[in-house]
Amino acid sequence: VHVKMADEAVCVGPAPTSKSYLNMDAIMEVIKKTRAQAVSLNESIFCSCKPSLSLQASEGVTFIGPDTHAIQAMGDKIESKLLAKNANVNTIPGFDGVVKDADEAVRIAREIGYPVMIKASAGGGGKGMRIAWDDEETREGFRFSSQEAASSFGDDRLLIEKFIDNPRHIEIQILADKHGNALWLNERECSIQRRNQKVVEEAPSTFLDSETRRAMGEQAVALAKAVKYSSAGTVEFLVDSRKNFYFLEMNTRLQVEHPVTECITGLDLVQEMIRVAKGYPLRHKQADIPINGWAVECRVYAEDPYKSFGLPSIGKLSQYQEPLQVPSVRVDSGIQQGSEISIYYDPMISKLITYGSNRAEALKRMEEALDNYVIRGVSHNISLLREVIIHPRFVQGDISTKFLPEVYPDGFKGHKLTDLERRELLATAASLYVAEQLRSQRFLGTPRIPIAKSKTSIWELSVRLGDGIYPVAVSKDVSSFSVEVDGMKLNVTSEWNLASPLLSVTIDGTRRTIQRLSRNASGDTSIQFLGTVYKLQILTKVASELSKYMPEKAAEDTSSILRSPMPGAVVAVSVKPGDTVSEGQEICVIEAMKMQNSMIAAKTGKV
């Protein structure tokens, strides 16, 4: 989308980052070719491109962002930690040098004390990060983190520090100019994460009091001034249950989650970055920075949330509709209907932001926006996002970076229907079935001439949902349906626009937005209800009684097959034909969306 919106676009190379966005010769060639006066490089991969900024300066090109020194200092986690200590910023205990090999990693980890965090020195965005609880995990973490770091950032250096168990991840947005002025623009709560990558963010945080907020803000500004930082940037902290906070890293760019800060402060951060790059002083004082209302951001990913809280999905967006009809909703995306989600970059579809005068209002709007978001063609994490924002712990603000594994210890399973919600879903599905049957009896709004006059007044159906089969009776009542489920009658009304991807249905006065994703002649249908996709089979009573005579297709035996759970590139193979492998042994390594995943044998056998 950004390419189509631009007046002029130049391809910098093929999809792999090492051949395009990390190829600084190609970047500089484009700058010269287009005679660009200013350049903005706001992706995390540019943290490793230190030589480019000096070259830009020599070419007379203004860089919209901090200068070379600040990017080098803060982009390197080892150097940034030393600078933070010197600026009297609270830091996490750990090893401040570069870890040479796996043996040294184990020795350092033992000295610090388990658990430890192994992470890329030049990294960001959760790439090249592993938590290790023992020597074996340290060796494995060193190998994968260094490989991911080299692939994503062109720099495989690692550091090791103490892993703070059960913390919150809270960051401070700062803004500084070239005249020595710097502000902190309040905090963002980023504790809902999976694989060290943020999923849901909000501003402000429910946890911080004004005193802690000010202390964190002042330390963030002190660090920015220590490196003569100019532009927008983010100082990230880990905060424990007693509100002790520790410097994590500084991101020398505009963060994915910056819109929530814009919502509560009223500042346009991109505009401020351009002004700073031009040399203008900041227009605001610290006392001018407000907290107005509440904002929440959900990262909508092309991922299957039922596999490790989100394994990447690729494919073409066959249908795509953003929920912009919902009040106070903002959607930042770079795709449109027909766009491809590939294996080369993060599988993010969009950033979905809602704003309200208070947190409850912002969350309610987010719930509505997620229900009205249409994404077809790839798996997505709408169901997980919706469950997070309505979970009692999240609503109460009782969260940490361990929220997902604590709330879903056996993995995410989707929304668990209450008895009332189950009846609502059954009644809605049955009404949808009957509405379709009635539509098929009409042609351009005129009843077809029947061979035999239909006398159907009550449709007796059998609906399969999960392991249950439920008898459902539906009768038409002018503009609505009366549906009997479990001996209870529900009134279901809708405009029944069956061509629309969204259906607004009212069930006994409760309005729901549903999506019917698929159906076939066998009565199978998939309906997205309360964010989760449910598979149902709707048959007439007679058809249901006869269906037991239909043979079922045997499931494929895959116990002897190693099948990747996601598309990607094979970067390493650890076995060869004829080898005997044990259960749990690594077979190969798959790289997808800049993350590496070890594929292991499900059972003992011969390759």
From TrEMBL:
The gene is Pcca. It is found in: Mitochondrion matrix. GO terms for biological process: lipid catabolic process. Gene3D superfamilies: 2.40.50.100, 3.30.700.30, 3.40.50.20, ATP-grasp fold, A domain, ATP-grasp fold, B domain. GO terms for cellular component: mitochondrial matrix. InterPro entries: ATP-grasp, ATP_grasp_subdomain_1, BC-like_N, Biotin_BS, Biotin_carboxylase_complex, Biotin_carboxylation_dom, Biotin_COase_C, Biotin_lipoyl. Its cofactor is biotin. This is Propionyl-CoA carboxylase alpha chain, mitochondrial. The lineage of its organism: Eukaryota, Metazoa, Chordata, Craniata, Vertebrata. It is an enzyme of class 6 (ligase). Residues 1-409 form the Biotin carboxylation domain. Its EC number is 6.4.1.3. It comes from the Eukaryota. Pathway: Metabolic intermediate metabolism; propanoyl-CoA degradation; succinyl-CoA from propanoyl-CoA: step 1/3.
